[in-house]
User: Fold this.
Amino acid sequence: MKKSFYLTIILFVFLSITAYTQDFGFGFDEPEEASSVSFNLSGEVSAEFPFYFNDFEFVWQDILRGRLNFNVLSNRIDLITSFNLSYESFKELGDSKIYTDSSYTPLLIDELFVRAYIGPVNIEAGYRKLTWGKADSSGPLDVTNPIDFTDLRHITDARARKIARPMLHITWNADSFSKLEGVFIPNFAGHRFASAGRWTPNQYSNMPAVAVQGILERASLINPTVVPTLGSIIGSMASVFSDDFPNTSSLDYFQAGLRYTSTFGSADFGLQYFYGNLFRPSFTVDGVDNFIYALSSFPPIPFPLPSPQLIYTRYHQFGVDYAQVLYGFNVRAELAFNLTEDTNGTEGSLHNPFIAWSLGFDRDLFWGININIQCNETIRLFNDKIDSNPVIDSEAGTNMTNTRLTTQLSKKFLRDNLETKAVFIWDIENSDCYIIPSVSYMYKDFLFDLTAGFFVGNKDGELGQYWKNSFVRFGVTYKF
Assistant:
């Protein structure tokens, strides 16, 4: 399988070169007007040194990183390549997972695609990062690419955290102000989370314990007399519970969408439809009731043990977005209705339908200070149908609404070479917050930055659970 990965890359490059050879006009029927071709090589090399306050630990592994971009541009076809160069990305090339699971994007690839121009139509094919919607950071309409959450130190760099996906993206520029986009993604990959180490989310590491506790609670409700017997049986199950995610590399997990954007007066608006999978899986345990009823019979009937399951929920999204400058405020808004297969709210292994919206603005204030505020919220429908037991319903114990407020204050000095910034990310229902102050200085081609991150509030919240990971880091980046 490793050979097939390299053959894919070689074939991609070969086809691109072939296309350019034809474009250069090396044949006998050379067009009268020759194509202009340009080559662009750029990139960056960085070193950063993080220090974690809780355990007074410097992390020396993977402190050197780089990015190499090589683009070939013409008036007919472009070749866009961008690679992440780091210890982890090269080490991962020896992991058989990237060769056996086509839904997995190697960390080495940042983007790798070909873009062709055919009149008003642009066609892009390959590993692509695509942004839909008008929100500044992760709005509800930005649904084509999963996010890398394996390290939250760079959470504010929305584009860098995106994971490129293989896709076919077609854009028709109807006129100067309107365009229609279509995207087809042959398979699916969810958000990427750390499965070990300091950035492992509690939702991942606590799955076995949650399953065991939920099974016992269910047994006490159905037949309390079997709880002691059941406890001795499933007490050792936590260590053998499988946390494998489903294989989503087949066409059964294809995704597709359409997006239309235009301008009406001074306002920009967009309409969007997308059919795909929610990036976060649901976790339930199958066969719990049958197993308990089998134990309740006399004599007990042999029955398979309950089995945990991780499922990605299929959904249809219907969305609209809007942007306009009003009284000096750059206003952006998005609204989406996400219709899942659980149309009654009673299928515990799937997510309920929900509404998602985003509203934000940025504006220059006094003394050259710029403020950027964005509020994102999801509202679950049929919330009264949610079961209280997490092994029966994956959304048990979660809030009907999830509201996140992101605020950024920034100011530049010394001809914009020195920038101070403070970012506040507040999850309102969870009562936790992530505070990120930073200062950066650009000197010629070098960027020096000092950044800190503090996780405060509820230690069981999505952000507060990382309270031991509060850090400070110093970084140097050379761009060429």
